[in-house]
Amino acid sequence: MSREDLINTTRAILAKAGFEISSSLYLRSICFDIVGRKEDTLLIIKVLSNVDAFSRENAEDMKVLADVLRATPLLVGETSSSGPLEAGIVYSRFKIHIVSNETLAEHLLEDVPPFVFAAPGGLYVKIDSDLLRTLRENSGISLGTLAETAGVSRRTIQMYESGMGAMIDAATRLEDFLKVPIIEPIDPFEYKSEKKPEEYEVTGSNRIESKALNRLLEIGFAITPVTKSPFEAITRSRQTIFLTSLGIDEDKLFQKAMIASEISKIAGKHSLIIVERERAAENIDSTAVVTSEELKKIDDQDVLTDLVLSRSTKK
Questions:
Q1: N or C: which end of the chain has fewer CB within 10 A?
Q2: Do 37 and 19 form a contact (C-beta atoms < 8 A)?
Q3: How much is the pTM?
């Protein structure tokens, strides 16, 4: 299946599951292909035929966006160097979950969550550690008995009770012995942020290469630069967050503004594009257009925030 077909399949699954989804971007130079939201779940998704092509740089940029926008990064793929991605298994690369479209469809459309995850050494399942410990203690079962039943060491049983994943055979033997389901489903949308959004930000007297973004810093905004996105930065004020683009290339200005509009609507944010030349329209779709000259005359972040909010809502 071509990458375009894979992306369209992912979008169709999300749409059928009730997600509001972005248009397909098909831009290989950016770190994601689809943005989707359903209620409080915001997904930033990259789709690749072979997931081995997913680079660390791409993963780090997805994590930045996910942490700042409070979203979940997800990689959808078809194969790896080990072969096809199997249904019902959650893989990972650079601490980002990977699933096949089949697994995604089972989870979202059939309410059949995955139970197996791949990690170095093989396939594992997640055990309800609290339940395992409670069953053992209430039944007076020793660590040695459980260890012998599962075919592992007593130390391993203790690690299961502390939250470590278990090999499938060992977990199944424990379930059969205890006669209670202890294997838990895996949420492929679960994501634990490694950093606080503020840790990515440039603030105060610090400076970056862009004159326009440096002007925003001077006014008092916090800037999170992003390199592999259809916008150059995420700008935070006291009131809100803007997806911020720089309209230097006139040929790409409209496309960038339209992409930023669509993504900002889904993410529940606002979008701004800073341009060199004055334009007839003060907005492109819901992206506010502000010129460099206008920016030079603004000294208060609340003034610019109000300007962006007013222009982004104009029809």
A1: C
A2: yes
A3: 0.91
